[in-house]
Write a structure and sequence with these properties.
Elements (H helix, E strand, L loop, with lengths): L11 E3 L6 E3 L3 E4 L4 H6 L11 E4 L4 E2 L2 E3 L8 E2 L2 E7 L15 E8 L2 E2 H10 L4 H4 L5 E2 L4 E2 H4 L6 E6 L2 E7 L7 H11 L7 E3 L8 E2 L4 E6 L3 E7 L2
Parallel strand pairs: 3-15, 5-11, 6-18
Antiparallel strand pairs: 1-2, 3-4, 7-10, 7-16, 8-9, 8-15, 9-12, 13-14, 13-17, 17-18
């Protein structure tokens, strides 16, 4: 095939203990999937149907030192368990959903909260608050064949050594199998899709020079420093 312009390089994520890498296709994020976080954002945490938003594939980047994003004065961290889809499907039943998961990582859903708040107030989309460049720092993926499918365990982030968010994966309002089943009714999930499963309470602002360290028990860790 001949391209009329040079195609962008494919976004990939390292796989822990493997030479191969995981190609990223799309990034789907479950919104307000921890009750305490829903409350801190001013919403009722009752079990209403889940909702999703997305980030572009190239938002995924490894940890390390990153430039501080522009056009925001209120950049927030949201630490999340990430599921990497290895087998596609549509209308996937919840009881078979985990068969479609290749592995897991820990990721940060970085959010320009001021831009998001303004968009909400005006009834506009969130894309510029969620899908900006390098808005999804992520750890290497660990295959489920090695660690199984985690359903509980501490998920936490520190900023400059101070704990800001902490919770347990068992506090999700919608479990990963339920989220996969629901999302696959609306889109066909394909290999390479990532699903970010929501964040616990404690989101807070970071600034240039800050270092974030996210951990997810049994899955991994990711560290990001914003350049001063």
């Amino acid at each position: 095939m001949r391209y009329v312009i040079e195609p962008a390089p494919e976004t990939t994520i390292p796989v822990a203990g493997e030479e191969g890498v995981f190609p990223v296709r799309r990034i789907w994020c479950v919104g307000r999937n921890y009750a305490d976080h829903a409350r801190e954002m001013g919403h009722d945490p009752d079990r209403e149907p889940p909702f999703f938003f997305s980030k572009p594939a190239n938002a995924a980047v490894p940890g390390g030192t990153l430039p501080f994003p522009g056009q925001t004065k209120d950049l927030h961290h949201e630490v999340e368990l990430v599921a990497a889809i290895g087998k596609g499907g549509k209308d996937i039943p919840a009881e078979r959903a985990l068969e479609h998961v290749y592995g897991y990582a820990i990721g940060l859903d970085m959010t320009r909260r001021d831009i998001q708040a303004e968009a909400k107030k005006l009834g506009r989309p969130w894309e510029l608050s969620k899908g900006f460049d390098q808005s999804c720092p992520i750890s290497p993926i660990v295959p489920a064949a090695r660690i199984g499918h985690p359903t509980q365990g501490k998920i936490e982030i520190t900023v400059n050594g101070k704990v800001q968010q902490t919770g347990d994966m068992n506090q999700m309002i919608w479990s990963l199998p339920e989220a996969i089943a629901y999302l696959s009714r609306y889109v066909e999930l394909l290999p390479g899709d990532l699903i970010m499963t929501g964040t616990p309470a404690g989101v807070s602002a970071v600034k240039p020079g800050d270092t974030m360290h996210g951990t997810c028990e049994g899955v991994g860790e990711v560290t990001v420093t914003y350049a001063a």
